[in-house]
Amino acid sequence: MRRFLLILIPYAWLLALFLVPFAIVFKMALSDIAVARPPYFPQFDWAEGIWVFLAELDFENFVWLTEDDLYWKAYLSSLKIAAISTLLALLVGYPMAYGMARAPEQWRPTLMMLVILPFWTSFLIRVYAWMGILSNEGFLNQFLLWTGVISAPLTILNTNWAVYIGIVYTYLPFMILPIYAALERMDGALIEAAEDLGCSRLSAFWLVTFPLSRPGVIAGSFLVFIPVLGEFVIPSLLGGSDTLMIGKVLWEEFFSNRDWPVASAVAVVLLLLLIVPIVLFQRNQQKQQEADR
Amino acid sequence: MSSPEFAPWDDPSAQPLIQFKNVTKRFGSFTAIDDLAVDIYEREFFALLGASGCGKTTMMRMLAGFETPTSGQIMLAGQEIGAVPPNLRSVNMMFQSYALFPHLSVWDNIAFGLRRERMAKDLIKARVEEMLRLTRLEKFSGRKPHQISGGQRQRVALARSLAKAPKLLLLDEPLGALDKKLRQETQFELMDIQEKTGTTFVIVTHDQEEAMTVASRVAVMDEGQIIQIATPDKIYEAPNSVYVADFIGDVNIITGTARPNGAQQYDIHWSEGHAPLCAQSVSTFSDGQSCHLAIRPEEVLISAEKPENADNTMQGKVLDIAYLGNISTYHVELPNGTVVKAQIANTRRISRRAFTWEDPVWLSWAASAGVLLAK
Amino acid sequence: MIRMSWFNTVSLTLGFAFLYIPMLILILFSFNESKLVTVWAGFSTKWYKELFQNEAFLSAAWVTLKVAVLSSTFATVLGTMAALVLVRAGRFWGRTLFSGMIYAPLVMPEVITGLSLLLLFIGIGLDRGVLTIVLAHTTFAMCYVSVVVSSRLVSFDRSLEEAALDLGCTPLDAFRLVTLPIIAPAVISGWLLAFTLSLDDLVIASFTSGPAATTLPIKIFSAVRLGVSPEINALSTLMIAIVAVGVISASLVTKRQVLRRQRDVQAAQ
């Protein structure tokens, strides 16, 4: 009885506030927009029964998504932005994780804390901080003009570059931590053994260190890639009007166009898009756990 | 030992404290305990001995109430307890990991069970202090478990499980986490405490030396069944099977066929070209029945010359010598390739190098030295 | 001791500069006299004064705090229960679905979670306000809490609970007197995580809040959409300061505890 209640309470909560809402999104994706309140059709009517209601549902919105090139461009552009910024985060994060793992042991907790600290501070504020830096008269341009690298201010804010910088900045801890975890538990004697067997420092890195840190690299990359696909705040604050990301499109479809059915269809497709990387990520984690055992 | 000897298991009128009546426990398709019946008496120090996976831990967990039998009955003082939850049994357990509550002090750990009984505060205080005295932990009562050593933790665990004065105390590998020297000291302490409190102890262990040292009776288990229950000396000197003989101590097993030769006398034909061995046995074997002769290495004599008047003699050469300080074990290879172990106490320094590798030697033993086993 | 190679020193220096300089600039310009956030015109705290007179921000901050405290508390209770179910309950009908529902919100884009909850609230005719934000935040934060707590429960020595039962505890007492005090650090960090997630959340709150309840992130977002302002810098500085003090002191306390524990363990041998 006690066990039953323990299972029932969180189960019922999640069913009611996670699964049922999803079912509603799916149903909404099959409805049509209407000039009404709430702005969609059909409404469920007990009098007519379930079959009449079901007959009104159709896949028109999904057809619409393929016809208007805004949507598939937004999907492709989200994939591109997520891929590029994941790669950039890896390029910035790997050397940092490596440096942390090779730092003297008594520094490591402090370095860890320094990586995690930004994660606890507001996401919005961290994105906002770059608005002042990247604008035309912003700190970065002032600095570059002062050093004489450039003669006219660069336009960075409201371009994809600002989005990349913002994503790398906010998601960097997610990249660093798994790589650091993989590097930190690596036995230092392995490198010595490789050098003893005739490797140079660089080839020891490529032949031993990097392959051993690969699970961390894969985990970190997915931890950046997956949430960035649906990102909304960064493209809307740092990106320009031509920065297309699907999260932003969904938001505008819902709040500006008040087209709930199309917004729901966009959400359904985004979810389908996410399934592949999530399954791959899950498999990587499982392999890791089995290897640890 | 004081007289009269403590042996309630030989007294047909004695009432057992615990009775397992045809108890079977299955986990899915795996049978952990197979139709087991055993009686354990009050004030006994009963040891369950066996390799890991033999079912001894399952048996103990059924006594504690963490597992319920699939079939059969477990009786405690005449009451069936198979379905009684652990918190309502007057049985306490000392866990292998000690399971001391890390957030509570030594004092609070020991008082934990008493507080559950809503005992009066001053009674709790008196009882905890008594337990601290018994286990010599008075100085550490305010410390947390991580602030004391492994041996002290072991004593806290013992004090905590004894505090409620249970009818039965279960000890799951109680000394497994201690190093060898401390373990030996603690064994005697444990026996002392058992005697002082008069509690019935059931101990689970895989260490045969430990079982032999502490227990009044030992049950050797294998594959969910009890192979033999007897006092330590009987288990060692009169094992009922090759499994028990091999499990307890070191043994030479020679397999052959028996041929009766007088009252309780048998000739054992075991190898072409070797004279039959001569052995005494109280159990009877039919003519031509296959049998195993178990001889402890310390019963085998080793000499340079062929001994006179020995029941069994054979020649071989020294293959290996294990010098253990107080004793040496010689591995002697017979012409047919069989290796027989012989043990000699190193009483005199001078005799230490009596034999060396490759030396031809004679082995001998008396007809009454070995035990003849059917299986 | 190993000396740091120049490569590691450079990569760490540049990396941490990248992480921290933007925030330092943000903090610096919150004390700027000028309205312009990019030109330094002398030290002033006037933006802080202005911030504390801004009724809209203050009331949004109050709503945010209320939502965060309520939702993180509910999320901690539900998340701990869910963790117990995941680690302890064994097999039951729909277990795969249950664990799927725990892990899915962790990777779900916030826009989808927000949208789906909004459609639910409209569907059942629940007026949007503090209650709906609390429900939404509780739902996604409980998943984070259950991940944190279940990773602690997995390494929890079951024999401690068995010992409590053996000494006369009912199962509920064993949980209250033994399990809960031992897993408390994980439960507390779960609560803190849920609290921060709730304080931070813009997207889900935007979907599920009504005109009556505006949270601080929503307020900040609509303000910064129009461009940078020193007042937002001042607000950000305060938020960063609170978090920094919290995180640093928490890590110092943990470090001291770990050190003391090591010393105790050594002394006991």
TrEMBL record, chain A:
TM regions (residue ranges): 74-98, 110-131, 161-183, 204-229, 260-281
* An annotated GO BP: transmembrane transport
How does it sit in the bilayer?
A: Multi-pass membrane protein
Fetch the InterPro entries from UniProt.
Answer: MetI-like (IPR000515), MetI-like_sf (IPR035906)
Q: Which PROSITE patterns match?
A: ABC_TM1 (PS50928)
State where the protein is found: Cell membrane
Q: Pfam families attached here?
A: BPD_transp_1
How is this protein annotated for GO cellular component?
A: plasma membrane
Q: Where is the ABC transmembrane type-1 domain?
A: 75-281
What family does the Swiss-Prot or TrEMBL record give for this protein?
Answer: Belongs to the binding-protein-dependent transport system permease family. CysTW subfamily.
Q: What is this protein called?
A: Putrescine transport system permease protein
From TrEMBL, chain B:
- The answer on whether this UniProt entry bears the keyword Amino-acid biosynthesis reads no
Q: Which reaction does it catalyse?
A: ATP + H2O + polyamine-[polyamine-binding protein]Side 1 = ADP + phosphate + polyamineSide 2 + [polyamine-binding protein]Side 1
Q: What does this protein do?
A: Part of the ABC transporter complex PotABCD involved in spermidine/putrescine import. Responsible for energy coupling to the transport system.
Its GO biological process annotations read: putrescine transport
- What Pfam families does the annotation carry? ABC_tran (PF00005), TOBE_2 (PF08402)
PROSITE patterns named among the record's database cross-references: ABC_TRANSPORTER_1 (PS00211), ABC_TRANSPORTER_2 (PS50893)
Where is each ABC transporter domain found? 18-248
Its EC number(s): 7.6.2.11
Q: Do the record's keywords include Cell inner membrane? A: yes
Annotated protein name in UniProt: Spermidine/putrescine import ATP-binding protein PotA
- Organism superkingdom: Bacteria
Gene Ontology MF terms? ABC-type polyamine transporter activity; ATP binding; ATP hydrolysis activity
Q: In which family does this protein belong, per the annotation?
A: Belongs to the ABC transporter superfamily. Spermidine/putrescine importer (TC 3.A.1.11.1) family.
Record's keyword terms, sorted: ATP-binding, Cell inner membrane, Cell membrane, Membrane, Nucleotide-binding, Translocase, Transport
Gene Ontology CC annotation, any one: ATP-binding cassette (ABC) transporter complex
Automatic annotation (TrEMBL), chain C:
Q: How does it sit in the membrane?
A: Multi-pass membrane protein
Q: Name one GO cellular component term.
A: plasma membrane
UniProtKB keywords: Cell membrane, Membrane, Transmembrane, Transmembrane helix, Transport
What name does this protein carry? Putrescine transport system permease protein
- Pfam families membership: BPD_transp_1
Task: Note the superkingdom of the native organism.
Answer: Bacteria
Transcription regulation as a keyword?
no
Q: TM spans, by residue?
A: 12-31, 67-89, 101-124, 130-154, 174-194, 232-253
Q: Where in the cell is it found?
A: Cell membrane
> In its keyword annotation, does this UniProt entry include Transmembrane?
yes
